[in-house]
Amino acid sequence: MRYEILVAIRYLRSSGLQTVLILLATVVGIVAFVFIASLINGLQDQLIRDILGNIAHIRLEPEEREPGLIEPIEGFTVLLARQERRRRREEIEGWRGVVDLAETIPGITAVSPQAVGGGFVVQGGERVPVSLNGVEPDRVSAILDVEGNLVAGTVELGPSDAL
Hints:
Layout: H1 3-14, H2 16-51, H3 95-103, E1 114-123, E2 126-135, H4 137-140, H5 146-149
Antiparallel strand pairs: 1-2
């Protein structure tokens, strides 16, 4: 037998109470490690299910438009000064057709168009910036369970309602 094992056996036999305490501490440490590892794995699964399961997995956005260059004309020199214009509102022209087309693609389970913008809310003289997301109420529940997560009120949305 190896020397290290003989020393360990001799040490464990020398004091019964100390051996029991060492084994008990080892068992408690292993149980605590298994418990914490299980807790973290369960939390990870729940976070993935709650966060990734409730957001769109594919986003369709309009392509960036770059200004075209002027074709050179014989006898003239083309001078080009390019200035970035203010950010244009991002929109997909003919978005309803894109939604209809996306619904026909195999593997797509839900489609929900969304309009995103910003604004300010004024309350008591204080101005607070807000982010606004516009959705079609009958389509958004296919991606995010709004009704299931609603604490009070209804999901009924009209043109002047907010949720």
